[in-house]
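Worked Example 4.2. Consider the chain below.
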Amino acid sequence: MPLRHPLHGACVIAASAALGACVPEAGVATAPATALAKADYLGIETILLDGDMVNFRVAMTGARAPADVEAYGRCAAAQYALIRGYGFARHVRTQVAKAGETWRGDAVYLISAALPRGTRTIDAEVTVGDCGEQGIPTV
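Applying the procedure from the previous section yields the following structure tokens:
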């Protein structure tokens, strides 16, 4: 029989309660912590909408949740910003849909040379590096 500390049960409950505070808010997209082992990234379509507003359409299989598809779109936007000589992007919106095993994302970003206003901004260089570490392809 394994030895147990008399406070073991209380510590597990306290740890569970503390970890509950680490869960992101509902509706807040988070990037995957590690590369998706079964993900197959099917490509990125880039469409210039107006001036510095760009639409990124991505497709993939093996996503765990919409956040994985959103991360793929974010990586595409960050790389595109760098290619165009910009350092930042501001997320406008992302729509995610799943048909069968294929997930599709339709994301719109504003790219800019200076940090744009708003809370949904990305530093393109940092984001592209993070995408590489996670194994998410870019443009």
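The helical segments are 8-20, 66-83, 124-134. Residues 66-83 form the longest helix (18 residues). Compare this with Example 4.1 before moving on.
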